[in-house]
Amino acid sequence: MNQSLVRILSTAAVAVLSHCPAFADSTPSASAAPDTLAKARAYVEARQWTAAIAELKRINDPASADWNNLMGYSLRKSASPDLEAAERHYNEALRIDPRHRGALEYSGELHLMRGDLAAAEKRLAVLDKACLFGCEEYTHLKKAVERFKASGGKASTSQ
Prior knowledge:
Layout: H1 3-18, H2 38-45, H3 49-59, H4 65-77, H5 83-96, H6 101-113, H7 117-130, H8 136-150
Helix pairs in contact: 2-3, 3-4, 4-5, 4-6, 5-6, 6-7, 6-8, 7-8
């Protein structure tokens, strides 16, 4: 392969990958500032929704897409789900970062919980574009949409 073609292909690959949200994980890198959401993430991972919500309220960072996404998720998953508040937080996360993969996936699942297949499929289409080489958020929402369709329009309790 001649040198100028290699240079062109290398430049193109760097350009694509540097703008690829599939590699833009919301988890901070080791060189980033301390993760102020780490404790809330741990509560979410442990499915301790009340503690997660309390920690997120303590942090109170509504300008953060990640904070809004975690708050929406915790509110949706809690023992007494607040779907309206969860949707507001997902929408705010997407206003801040329109390609936030977690908020796209989880808001799509919320739409399925409400029986709104068309809205969930719109989120899936945005995720498809945001995940150039695929991502787990796309895969999860796609499977949830498939389960919803297979069940005749009944939302899964795992969403």
